[in-house]
Amino acid sequence: MKLAATFRIALRALRRNKMRSVLTMLGIIIGVGAVIAMVGIGNGARAQVETQIASLGKNMILIFSGSTTSSGVRTGWGSAGTLKIEDAEAIAREIPTVASVSPEIRSTAQVAAGNQNWLTQLLGEGPDYFEMRQWEIAAGATFTEQEVRAASKVAVIGRTTATQLFGSADPVGQVIRVKNVPFLITGLLKPKGMSLMGSDQDDVVIVPYTTAMKRLTGDVKLRSINVQAVSAKSLPQTQQQITALLRQRHRIASGMDDDFTVRGQQEIAEMATATSKILTYLLGAIAFVSLLVGGIGIMNIMLVSVTERTREIGIRMAVGAHGRDILLQFLVEAVTLGCLGGVLGIGLGYAASEIISRLTDWPTTIPLFMVFLSFTFSAVIGIAFGLYPAWKAAALNPIDALRYE
Amino acid sequence: MAAVIRFESLSKTYRSGDVEVHAVRDVSFEVQAGEFVAIMGASGSGKSTMMNILGCLDQPTSGRYLLDGIDVSQLGRDALADIRNQKLGFVFQGFNLLSRTSALENVELPLMYARSPQSAKELHGRALTALETVGLGGRAGHHPNQLSGGQQQRVAIARALVNEPALLLADEPTGNLDSRTSIEIMETFQTLNERGMTIVMVTHEHDIALFTKRNVVMRDGVIVSDIRVPQRSVARDELRRLDAATKTAQLAP
């Protein structure tokens, strides 16, 4: 029998029981829908995180002062102040795979300009910081090596801070006061947007770390050190060497915990994607269970259908249908159920990811191969769960089938 | 003329538990081309088993069955299906049409399972010709539930004829029909037989058997009588007589 005719018969049989067919497909619809939505959300989240990671800079390693595993009260990264400028200099000097280093001091400060004032993030950085983070200047210039060495009172400010203090006026060349110390603004940064942790990176004032230590904190301790490795490949090796060097410099006996934390960009990215991963796994589990239940649903309804149509099977066999004709007929019906469910599920998944995209501002994208894959998978489920009922139909004895009431 | 059906000491034994049931015992008989045979007998006489074997739906336990010169007693499931498709036409007591499927598509069914593929247009053409043969050319698009019992049985006959079989098998074809419609169906059979179709029919109605040319009576799995019908009823005349009787009844005060 021709395949086209087989399909026509299958479609007619399904149309005869519309409600039943739709309910049977529901499991597949939800399963495939979940898969598509999952992929859409996962891709969206990944794209989002990738932009944020890229905003960190390339091949970055962050060294935080203070151990997160020290006994007693734990005060968080950077607070213990175990990193010193000499550590940063040693890293730059002794590890060949390090491209550049910027010691970092971080605090919040009330800054004022004219009659305006604003509470903002204050960063003390080295001259290479802007290049490392690929943070471009919108106007003016960043501070120089000399200015850092001389602990000059110069500052580079972010867009948000500039807007808060100067409105739409050009801030370059103006003076801001930080803790009553006047700083000359040499440059305005291009906006960088939200950080991985969700804070506004443009709400910032960046001064040379030397100036920050001398004029503002009066301290010689660093919160962290930003390190850029020469390549992505050298990242793990560089991380290991930094750890070894710092342990040696801090005289930490083997077996004791570090008093600092070294984190590569990859680890930071992984932390950030952890949430979206959990969501992905959850949806994946729902999808799997749903597809399984959907498959069982198809098998169930196909078994009912075979019993209901025993006489029809008998008639078909009496007029010359082979076992495999009957097998194919019921298999095609099951596959049609699976495929139709798959198509509707893909539609549902698109709709769901579109809604989530609107709600979260994530750019959800669904790759075409995923659509093909879920469609194929639905078809495979139709075959897998339709095979037994179809085989049962094909194995019927024509005499018994004809006499079946 | 070659025999269309030839049973050579054919037996069929069923086994239900420890009991062996000899449904057909050592039966030998022949049906020549162009014959119109009624197989009769009480229930349990073995006539249904005979019918199943004749229709290649069941296999004999021993003996040979030659259908149109082919020994079908040792064939497998698929080969038997092809024989049913090509050599046999079935008419059942309960019509056995596919419901919610048009008369035309019901008639097309055997063509769809034919091993030589044909275009949809050819299928329609042949199915329509078969429907016209039984006088239902105008009802091709009707579904079985829109047709009377007699019309449904005629669709079933058209389905049996569409592959131009060597043998038409009818299992109690008039069992579900009133007497007038039964005679109409017999008229169709007689017309087909006159054109050369070999027909074997199982029935337990004596007056229906009189429309055939030869009556075979079975009891306990053996043939107890095999005679030519001496005074054959002609369906056309019977119908005319019936119409006259109805008219008289209507005229009577």
Describe this structure in words.
The complex is a heterodimer of chains A (405) and B (253). Chain A is an alpha+beta fold and 405 residues long. Chain A folds into two domains: 3-51 and 272-403, no CATH class; 103-229, no CATH class. Chain A is 56% helix and 18% strand. Chain A contains 13 helices and twelve strands. Chain A has helices at residues 3-16, 18-56, 85-94, 129-132, 145-149, 159-166, 209-217, 235-249, 265-308, 310-318, 323-360, 368-394, 398-403; strands at 60-65, 83-84, 98-113, 116-125, 137-140, 154-157, 175-178, 181-189, 204-208, 221-222, 224-229, 260-264. In chain A, the strands form two sheets. Chain A has a six-stranded mixed barrel. A two-stranded antiparallel sheet of chain A has the order 2-10. In chain A, α1 (3-16) packs across α11 and α9 (265-308) packs parallel to α12. The two termini of chain A are 27 Å apart. The relative contact order of chain A is 0.19. Chain B has 253 residues and is an alpha/beta fold. Chain B has a single domain, classed as Rossmann fold (3-Layer(aba) Sandwich), CATH 3.40.50.300. Chain B is 37% helix and 27% strand. In chain B, the strands form two sheets. A six-stranded mixed β-sheet of chain B has the order 6-7-8-3-9-10, sandwiched between helices. In chain B, strands 2-1-4-5 form a four-stranded antiparallel β-sheet, with helices on one face. In chain B, β9 (214-219) and β10 form a beta hairpin. In chain B, α3 runs parallel beside α5 (149-161), α4 packs across α5 and α6 runs antiparallel to α8 (235-251). The longest helix of chain B has 17 residues, at 235-251. Chain B is globular, with a radius of gyration of 19 Å.
